[in-house]
Protein: ATP-binding cassette domain-containing protein
Organism: Chitinophaga barathri
Amino acid sequence: MQIQLSAVVPVPLRERILQRQSDIWNRDVTFQPGQFIKIKAPSGTGKTTLVHYLYHIRYDYTGSISVDGKPWQDYNRDQLSAIRQRQVSVVFQDLRLFDQLSALENIELKRVMDPQPYYPQEKTLEFAERLGVTHVLKQSGATLSYGERQRIAIIRALMQPFEWLMMDEPFSHLDDANADKAARLIAEECHARKAGFILTDLDHDQRFDYTVSYLL
Ligand SMILES: Nc1ncnc2c1ncn2[C@@H]1O[C@H](COP(=O)(O)OP(=O)(O)OP(=O)(O)O)[C@@H](O)[C@H]1O
């Protein structure tokens, strides 16, 4: 799945963005299948905005974003839902866990609604063990620490099929050892599926072997 950005400029940020250099905003950029893409973005330059545009849950921009040659706007609701079920997985900066569900239920929610789940439930337990969150699986989302929430959201994203995995500052509340463990797992899963990976971060993340690095 190829993603093409053509002269994308967020409407609310137009003035600010056009005053500075960016490798992404107002440029023509193509993300090729399987690429590992680093997007370094100083605070407030629109990192989260970009991830929302790429997942097509926000559309207040000029220019266009095309997926396999077709603008996001031309996909209907069923097609978008199928893409989010099987082709694009995301970890938002605000993680979007349900407070009233347990950590395990949060991970399982999307998988159990999938008629052809990509992985069996045992995989959740294996990933939780690898990321050191087995002991919190029964805890409610509301009681998890932020670092635990990040690891649960990462596991949830890995449990579904994807051709692109997008993560918005996924390690911001993890210490180096835990971030390294999560990065190893993410890289393994992306490579096994020949999937592309897009990571946005404030700094120069060095945990992945990136194909290309952009400044937002
Ligand atoms: N709908 C909107 N209307 C006006 N301004 C907005 C809107 N959405 C976002 N902004 C502004 O756009 C800028 C970029 O927001 P965004 O959340 O994408 O930043 P970010 O780069 O992810 O920042 P951070 O690193 O702080 O998370 C911010 O200054 C924000 O206040």
